[in-house]
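The data are set out underneath:

___
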Amino acid sequence: MAGLGLFLSGCFSEPTVDVSPLPVKASKVAVVVNGEPISLEEFDNEFRLMKIYYSAVSEGDMRAIKLQLFEQLINRHLMVQEARRLGLKLTQAEVDETFRGALKDLPDDFIVILKNEGVSVAVWKHKLLEEKLAQKLVQKEVDDKAKVSQGEVEEYYWAHLGDYWLPAAVRARHLVVQRYEKFQQVLAALKKGNDFSKIAETFSQDPGSAQGGDWQFMNTDRIPARYLTVLAKLKPGEISKPVKDDFGYHLFQLIQWRPRRMRTLAEVQGQIHEALLKRAQDERFDQWMMVLKKNAKIKVKEDMAPVVGAALEGHREK
């Protein structure tokens, strides 16, 4: 990790960084993308890195995953090439943040794990920078150009009104103990005027005891009928009489009832806008990527065809 720290602080001296393609020996070329060679070793590294991050992958899924990884590798090369064509580069700040973000959730022995999998730190870093540059390109060419109008949000809301019903719900505090002796301590504390939520934190065996027994708004159809009957007799702030059942001794304190109602446009327009924008961005990306691939010249070396399989059928070198 100390070596990686030196890389982050001293490897790049320029304010921007150009992510250049890795050199490939002619004898090692597996695929050529717009004249740029990709080695089988780069694909193998991609697969090894995938196994590090997703160690639970089953053997039965390996072939499908390898095909998908190979196509992802091709797509990333296409995007990085397009980024270079448009003159996009990574700033030093983006480079530093990329590595910091990648390391944040990784184990302390990640460099050792890389070495054990046969992947160099330099290869891992290069992949990260390619992904970051591709993300920067997609943000510029796809995400920033996708728009959703207020009219589209409103049209979606009125067409999907049924999705925005809030069911009837009740908010209450709940306390339950299993032993009668413990329940007597609860009643004694209440008689002294102690706060219900504090008593629940101290005595209750309900999962919500840490929140003072507050179960927030719970849909009435999720609450046993017997409990609803008890709550229906209470005024806000009032505490119920003891209720005994198979789970123990219960007390309830009513906070508020919420009737069934339709959520207003103002309440949900943010989430609708976000969902529509994500859909628009996904559709735009698919179209944009399709054009990028349609205009690309991709050739798979014939002796690599059994390895690559059908992922790039039609691009085999003749």
Notes: DSSP finds twelve helices and eleven strands in the chain. Residues 1-13 have pLDDT under 50 and may be disordered.
